[in-house]
Design the sequence.
């Protein structure tokens, strides 16, 4: 087991280069098997979630060559066999093999996906979409079989604009007969990135990034070269760190437009931001005032930055509020922040933060990926040492986090316990 030891109080300055987006890469890798030829994806982050997907590709007999941040995937010798629980459970995004294998073979058998325990996280909308395309679904011992004689384009309305369901339905529909329309589709940049890969392979998808996506089925998908977009959540995490303890900290290789909901909130509370074409330079503000934030689907404030932001809000004078509307159990970082000296109360789905508080280092647990990020920010702000255990969650989503933090002046060390 690994633990992260952070000595707080240092000012962070210099430059952090943002990696490829986890939540794009984890969909692009399964999507690549829909091609009958070689697919090259660059800017793939080296995190445990992408490694776990490569293990599934390897198990299915797909050739994967990985050099630095480039991945070459060739599914010519793929075998469509059951994906066992031990592989599917390693991450949430294993569920994209459902859409991809169903789209390619009209049949998929796999165990339930894993991922952070931040709510019930059903996949009913994914399954509803597959059924609308003509598939039958059975489940035995937590293993789903989804199969169809023929997949036929359909009009699918999503009751919630789910990222996972939108992508999975696109994957299943690209080779279906006729036209599929997804209404109330998710609009996150990761959806656009996946649609672009599929279109580069020869798919006919229009409207990705809006709430109506049209997919005209096609028989053959071929070779292509594709790039993963910069990770807006990794970028947002470091921007928040800069607002907490930075002095001209440059967050580079980003698409600032993807971070507008965060940057406008940080400016509202009093942070200093210089927003360029592909970077943000951030310094800690002198006086922070409390703000109200509500998590929403894109382009609203992302739930994935809610936990990192909570740590920063302990610096604000007065009352801040965060309302979490996406997941019912995404406040597990808060008891640890309170243990470090914060004054945060949770009622229903709203956290009320009274500040400013002085944080002091202690022993805490990263209960999930973004809770881990929140605790790293708190630890950097705190006086003394913080020991964060269960950091395997953190390593699932942040490439080279220790090296990146050290390069800008943080005192952080991974230790085996
Ligand atoms: N939902 C349903 N039914 C479904 C699917 C979703 O009710 O069939 C509900 C969920 O219960 C939840 C909400 O819809 O309340 C959001 O679910 P969504 O499908 O959008 O999320 P996801 O695909 O499971 C992805 C990211 C999450 C990110 C969300 C929202 C991946 C692998 N995961 O999850 O990322 O929070 O979209 O933006 O792309 C993270 O990176 O830390 C993370 C959790």
Sequence:
């Amino acid at each position: 087991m690994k633990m992260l030891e952070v000595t707080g109080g240092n000012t962070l300055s210099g430059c952090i280069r943002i990696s490829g987006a986890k939540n794009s890469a984890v969909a692009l890798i399964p999507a690549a098997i829909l091609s009958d030829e070689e697919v090259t994806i660059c800017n793939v982050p080296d995190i445990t979630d992408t490694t776990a997907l490569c293990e599934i590709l390897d198990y299915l007999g797909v050739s994967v060559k990985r050099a630095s941040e480039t991945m070459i995937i060739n599914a010519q010798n793929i075998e469509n066999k059951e994906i066992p629980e031990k592989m599917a459970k390693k991450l949430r995004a294993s569920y994209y093999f459902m859409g991809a294998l169903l789209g390619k073979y009209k049949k998929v058998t796999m165990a339930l996906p894993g991922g952070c325990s931040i709510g019930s996280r059903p996949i009913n909308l994914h399954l509803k979409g597959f059924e609308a395309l003509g598939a039958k679904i059975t489940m035995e011992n937590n293993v789903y079989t989804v199969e169809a004689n023929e997949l036929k384009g359909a009009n699918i309305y999503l009751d919630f604009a789910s990222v996972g369901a939108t992508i999975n339905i696109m994957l299943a529909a690209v080779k279906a007969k006729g036209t599929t329309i997804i209404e109330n589709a998710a609009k996150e940049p990761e959806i656009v990135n996946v649609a672009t890969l599929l279109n580069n392979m020869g798919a006919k998808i229009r409207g990705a990034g809006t709430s109506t996506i049209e997919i005209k089925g096609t028989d053959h998908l071929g070779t292509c070269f594709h790039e993963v977009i910069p990770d807006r959540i990794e970028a947002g995490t470091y921007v928040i760190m800069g607002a907490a303890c930075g002095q001209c900290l440059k967050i580079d290789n980003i698409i600032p437009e993807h971070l507008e909901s965060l940057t406008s909130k940080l400016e509202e509370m009093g942070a200093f931001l210089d927003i360029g074409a592909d970077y943000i330079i951030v310094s800690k503000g002198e006086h922070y005032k409390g703000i109200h934030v509500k998590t929403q689907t894109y382009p609203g404030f992302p739930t994935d930055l809610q936990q990192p932001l909570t740590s920063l809000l302990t610096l604000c004078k007065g009352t801040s509020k965060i309302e979490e509307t996406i997941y019912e159990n995404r406040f597990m970082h808060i008891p640890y922040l309170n243990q470090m000296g914060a004054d945060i109360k949770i009622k229903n789905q709203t956290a009320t933060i009274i500040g400013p508080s002085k944080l002091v280092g202690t022993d805490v647990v990263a209960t999930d990926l973004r809770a881990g990020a929140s605790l790293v920010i708190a630890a950097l702000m705190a006086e003394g040492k913080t020991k964060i255990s269960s950091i395997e969650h953190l390593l699932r989503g942040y490439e080279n986090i220790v090296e990146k933090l050290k390069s800008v002046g943080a005192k952080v060390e991974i230790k085996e316990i």
Remarks:
- DSSP finds 14 helices and 23 strands in the chain.
- The first strand starts at residue 2 and ends at 7.
- Residues 23, 26, 92-93, 116, 119-126, 160, 162-165, 233, 302-304, 326-327, 369-370, 397 surround EPU (CB under 6 Å).
- The first helix runs from residue 22 to 31.
